[in-house]
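Before the break, one more example. Copy the sequence into your notebook; we will annotate it together after we see the structure.
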Amino acid sequence: MPHSFEGPAEAPDADPGPTHWVNMRWQSALGWAVTTVFCLYIAVGMTVATIVSVIAVAPIAGTMMLLALAVIFGLLSWPLVRMTPRYSTRQGVSVDGTGITLAQEPKRWFPGRSAHIPWPQIRGISRDRIVTSSGDSRTVRYVVDIELNEPLRDPQPPGWAAVDGGRVRVQARKARQEEILQALRATRPDLFADG
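Here is what the structure looks like once it is written out:
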């Protein structure tokens, strides 16, 4: 559960200073990668089976069914392949003297997404760990909560961040959560509940 706190509303007077970058590339991409590879594998396998059955002069009905399956899996694969730039583009959390930027850069047909949060808009920062259970399985998600003084206007955060009214939640693996917290603490330790 996140901590409750009140931080200063104003950023200290300073130049932008050093920029801390935490790489978020391939974040949450395992399910997408496995599904894409599986669909492409089936589509290629069905295509090869169709070609072999045509060469071997198999009955036309079997050939048409294999071809139909290859087309179906090919069509299922296309949206997954189209998502490739979303996962492979340069993306991450940038922290500097002006604020926090959550960015996914444009790549090929992916237009990119970003949200900049200036320091005066940030009330506090905390970490959270969300545990969900379903039957025998248990899922742990690590998040960095950024509490805002007011909701972001027209937010376009990357897929691994969510804007929920007056809060931005950055979902990350445990090691990345620690990197993000270190970068934030190095720049603005005053925004943490424990100072």
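The two ends are 18 Å apart (CA to CA). Residues 106 and 112 are 4 Å apart (CA to CA). Try to locate both features in your own notes.
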